[in-house]
Fold this sequence. Notes:
Elements: H1 2-10, H2 19-26, H3 42-51, E1 62-73, E2 77-88, E3 100-109, E4 114-123, E5 129-144, H4 149-152, E6 159-177, E7 180-194, E8 209-222, E9 233-242, E10 254-268, E11 271-284, E12 292-293, E13 309-310, E14 312-325, E15 328-340, E16 352-364, E17 367-375, E18 381-387
Antiparallel strand pairs: 1-2, 2-3, 3-4, 4-5, 5-6, 6-7, 7-8, 8-9, 9-10, 10-11, 11-14, 12-13, 14-15, 15-16, 16-17, 17-18
Helix pairs in contact: 2-3
Amino acid sequence: MAFLDLWALRSLVAMALLSASIVANASDADSLAVEQPAKKGLFDRFISYFSDANKEKKHKKFDFNILGGPHYSADTKFGLGIVAAGVYGIDTLRPDQHASDVSLYGDITTTGFYMLGVRGNHIARQDRMRLIYDMRFYSQPSKIWGIGHAACDNDANESDMKRKQMFVKAALLFRVAPKLYIGPIGRFDHISVNHIERPELLPPDAPRTVSNNRFGFNIVYDTRDNLTAPRSGYYVGLSYHSRYLCVPVNDFHFDTADLRFCGYNEVWKGAVIAYEYNVLMNWGDVPWCMMATIGNSYSMRGYYEGRYRDRNKMDTQVELRQHVWRRSGIAVWAGAGIIFDRFADMRPGHILPNFGVGYRWEFKKNVNVRLDFGVGKRGQTGFIFNINEAF
């Protein structure tokens, strides 16, 4: 497995986009000695850059690194992704406190898909407050099969469309008891869809452009040992967005409740079992382009995101994460999900299976780069390049 570490480093040498960061890192004042060593070559500096990336740097207020690489998925085909991960607040950490983190990410593919985004967790001193945020914009040649299990499960319904979306979500959490946090949450979506090949798959007068903002509350109970690569603890989160809390008034009025439960247990040396259950429910006038969907980079990996679409969804997954050698690890998972309009519509035959395998490389301490290959119903597959664990 030492070969995997070397391969992971050498395969990134061709990434010219990282050259400026490497040179800047090499000239960092923190790395200068009293006696200047002989100058290293570009390749040696490249190796040193990544060799030191996962070392904890408590003397630094902000520890930041960049990584890029190719990927493939059923949604977007071949592409090039760039991720930049930063950890800060390390110099003032107490033993029982999490560090803050931020990730900037970008992606461009051969299908014309492109995406820019930023997400992170800002932890106040003594963990009295948390700001959790996720913002992204993407443009994607996409597909749709209709709404509801029967329509979405029919391969003949496959229809092309183009979708653009801007998404902003933020939650401000205040600690009210040990490991318990409560606070407001807000979300804004602007979605534009055009060039729909078969509009008859959608409801009559289905909107092509939707702007929606809603506010609500978030309750979190969190005992995880860290936020980006947990090895122990539990996470229980309930968020609720109300149709009555919006500025300005939306064209569509609906409520959303999202319940998520995660658990993490060490089972033997270097091995963690992680498990997750999630249910997303919508009430009211839900536009078709904001309905619950199966499949993304975090759950039901391997499904084309948006193929299975309905008012509500449930999904679950169990993942074994095994450290193998040095900074390398592997993960295997199995899961299942279902979409439905009402609970009475759920059928055992509508359950969608999911399983897969992935490679992990420790980019920074508690920050893993992951390459996942997921498989779904009837051989649907997806190859995912991302940062941090899926859940």
